[in-house]
Design goal:
mainly alpha; about 100 residues; 5 helices; about 60% helix; elongated
């Protein structure tokens, strides 16, 4: 239900072309019975919906993953140590004084 809501609120849809490609893939999985398989999908909206659902879910997940990508930036060790502690105890472990200074990514 969550994926459906995210998809709906962000206007994510499955195009007819994507659906046709999925039907073609399924039809090709039945060599010698391609016509019967194609007729099956033409006559059964439920079967088409069973192909549409995973396409829709994949598109919504791709959308969410794209939103979740954090930009990368280089920081010095000093900048890194100056960041607030995410655990909430306001203690950031200091790097050993003899640690190699290598830029973090």
């Amino acid at each position: 239900m969550l994926l459906a809501e995210v998809g709906r609120s962000n206007n994510i849809t499955v195009t007819q072309d994507e659906l046709n490609q999925a039907i073609t893939r399924e039809v090709r999985r039945h060599p010698g019975y391609e016509r019967q398989a194609l007729d099956f999908y033409r006559q059964n909206p439920e079967a088409v919906a069973s192909l549409r659902a995973p396409i829709f879910e994949d598109k919504v997940i791709d959308f969410i993953v794209e939103l979740a990508k954090a930009p990368e930036r280089r920081v010095t060790p000093q900048e890194l140590l100056a960041l607030p502690d995410l655990d909430g105890d306001n203690k950031v472990a200091a790097a050993p004084a003899n640690a190699a200074a290598e830029p973090a990514t």
